[in-house]
Amino acid sequence: FGASRHEDVGKVASSNLVHPTMFCTYILESKTSGNLYIGQSQNVSDRTTRHNENREKSTRNRGPWQLLFSKCFSTRSEAVRLEKQLKKWKNKKRILAWIHKEQSVWRIPT
Q: What CA–CA distance (Å, rounded) separates 9 from 67?
């Protein structure tokens, strides 16, 4: 990925960041290291804040974090399934390519 494609990835995060009956898988990127973090939550906005305030052990002192992508589902099991699939890949380029593909499906042609 070139820099411009990577920048596009972060610009199209889901608008369903807070929904009491939705379960979202989300992908954060560390602004300092470029590492990705993949998780799931019903409130992605609050969860991102918790990561950035070092209140999450798994990401403590590794941020700041920016939200690259989120995808929401009607059940927690669907969100967990996607979270596990993405974590198994362990390849940042593959995950970023998947994000780009997912976003292009939902873009309206101009």
A: 9
Between CA 21 and CA 76 the distance in angstroms is: 10
Please indicate, yes or no, whether the overall pTM of this predicted structure exceeds 0.90: no
Cα separation, 40 vs 76, whole angstroms: 8
CA separation for the pair 77, 49 (Å, rounded): 24
DSSP 75: S
**Mean pLDDT calculated for residue range 78-93:** 95
Q: How far is CA 67 from CA 7, 92, 109, 110, in A?
A: 12, 15, 24, 25
